[in-house]
Amino acid sequence: LSATGAELRQSQSMGRTKLELTQFFAIVLQRRRRSRGVSRQALAEQAGLHQTAVGLIERGLRKPNLDTAHLLAEALQVELSELIQESEKLRRQAREQMFNEKQKSKK
Hints:
By secondary structure, this protein is an all-alpha fold. The chain has helices at 5-13, 21-35, 40-47, 51-58, 66-75, 80-106. The protein starts with a helix and ends with a helix. The mean pLDDT is 88.
């Protein structure tokens, strides 16, 4: 379940170094969509959103409001709380990883 280095680097390359929950929500959303074999366009249609909006959310470039996040969760047939919990878990893991890397670099 941990965020891959590539996923974190992509997020950081977009100027996000604070490890915002939105970054991890984006990772979880994209993973869930792909694991269900659903295209971005199909997810957008099922959620009643524009494909561009879903793409921006998945790349962490747009922060979804609560209603939008709920629509996306419903379209994926999961509870919003599940997506949020998964996002929080990834963020905790990333923070621990960063802390451990800083500790190693101090030695």
